[in-house]
Amino acid sequence: MKILTILMKRTLRLGLLAFTVTSATFFLVSLIPGDFFTALEANPNIRPETVTRLREQYGLGDPVHLQYVHWVQRSLHLDFGYSLFYGSAVSSVVANALSNTLWMGVPALLLGCFAGAILGTFHAVHQQRPAGYLLDFLSAVTLSLPPLILGLAALMFASGTQWFPVGGMSAVSLESPHPLAWILDRLHHIALPVACICLPVTAIVEKIQYAAAKNTLVQLHVRSARARGLSRRRILLMHVLLPSLNPVLSVFGPLLGAVLSGSLVLETIFSWPGLGKATYDALFNTDIYLLLGCVACGGVLLALGNLVADLLLFLLDPRTRHFSNEAF
Amino acid sequence: MAEKLLSKRGFARLQTAVRWMVRAMAALLSIGAACSDFFSANPPDEQNLFYFFGPPTSIHFIDARGAFHLTPFVYRYELEDPLNVIYQEQTDARYPLRFFAQGYSYRLFGFIPASRHLTRGSDGSFFYLLGADKLGRDVFARVAAGARISLLVVATGIAIYGLLGLCIGGLAGMQGGWPDRALMRFSEFVLAIPALYLLLALRALLPQKLPAWEATLLGVGTIALVSWPPMARGVRGLIIQLRQAPFVEAARSLGGTPGQIFFRHMLPALAPFVLAQSTLAAPLFLLGEVLLSFLGVGFGSADQSWGSQLRDAQDLRILTDFRWNLAPLFSVFATLLCLNVLTSRPDEREFRRTTL
User: N or C: which end of chain A has fewer CB within 10 A?
Assistant: First the structure.
């Protein structure tokens, strides 16, 4: 019951957020001089009347506030406009780009969080021992390797060994493939980009989990669990890892945003047609409706990440349930 | 010996040693950035069309006949295969390196006129320590010049970041009431937008071509504009705690104005947090600048910065054949490592980080 009201409240806030973010973007972009057709004006072979007619046709000739009102009206009917740069509806462009980005981001995020949580707990248990010092060193190095460096290194690796494709989402030779072959090909293509996102995520989560687990290890409930004669694995899983997951889950939302926007660099390196690429194209061609779609999508994803993190916290950590009314 | 090294104390010592090594690297990097022209043999933007994609010049002590020479020397390089860009050393004549030699004139630290350089090749030979890029520019000189820009970006960045966070957080915390609520709502809003998109949108607002100084400042300002919320929220939280502190109450009862209370009594107490949080944001500014330049929407400081030097690196030929062009990657890594290690205390509890 409680969880339902929380869900309702959060969904409402999500809609409000998407609206404010897109409105702000709309007016920010309207400050950029020129629109999609400005480039055509410089062309001596195109008559000024043609450009004016095109503007009228796509509603870009109206004053800014009217454009905004029209866009809001149409959005309420789930019509998000037409992308002039890609030449198709914004909703289909964004859906396409989003699915491509998620193919890369979701496995990386899940893998990174999982590996980071386990490694962080291991690190805390082994602190000031050889394995702990090794992890100290590895974590410092990995934290200093941004996706840009990893991406270029991965590209070098791929082109040097020919073990992985250097970019793109699927092999050209695959025309009407068997589903299994398609999956294998896709896995082959996402391996390197996923590794490049996964490594920094692992490093960040590991560091947070390490700090949290270090604090949990010295608490009395761990000692009492040990006194009750519970097995080492059970203590580590149920009494150390689980109670210290709170800070990890609270960075999950920001991490999702970081993965989505950090992927722009990797999308450029691996020529991956994702959300970052679409935003970039939209922004630098002043394709305003596509930009609004992308920004709204990014904002909603970030908020969704936060929502999922809070729900997980609610399910995994009984301590948060008692205060949930204030916390949400 | 090995047993001793593997013991608990040995590892702790090893860790201390590594930290000192990183500190030394940071010192080296900053010295290199400050006197980049002194260390580089060629001007960073001089194009040499006879040495495009030239490999790093190898330094010899032993010549082709096996004779040893006390002064290191280099050979002349000639383009053997123009299609695949392969250079060959011409071992017929030696060109000894000259140390502290006269070269192109520059301004040390930006204002002392000088023309001495650490090493230079003799006339008639090229000396490119890290090779040359596609226009025949000295990669080492460009990396060194880029270090100056990057460190400048980091320094001004954390200054703006700290000030912005302190102002907004201070205003919210001191005023309370509706300004507080409005500012905190606004910070949530900024946090809700993926930072890179906001950065790109703000960048698109600025004109493309700007003078270098202005462009760097504006660019750093835009990164600060998307990254201030954690700082402001932290400052506000601390101020709200401090408002109940006895010394603040005493100051208020003595008739201190809010300004006096803030600057004389709260600022010293806030300083440790502000400094720590600012240093945590340092990698953000370095990476932000590199990423924007890499994507080709940098701050217009010509193509001096590391990110813009890396733009060519998407060319597969560079990744397979001309790898010395990736040198900026290592400088980015080294700088990030220094920042990360120097700003982390061995037992750090809290970890706030904004990632791009």
Answer: N
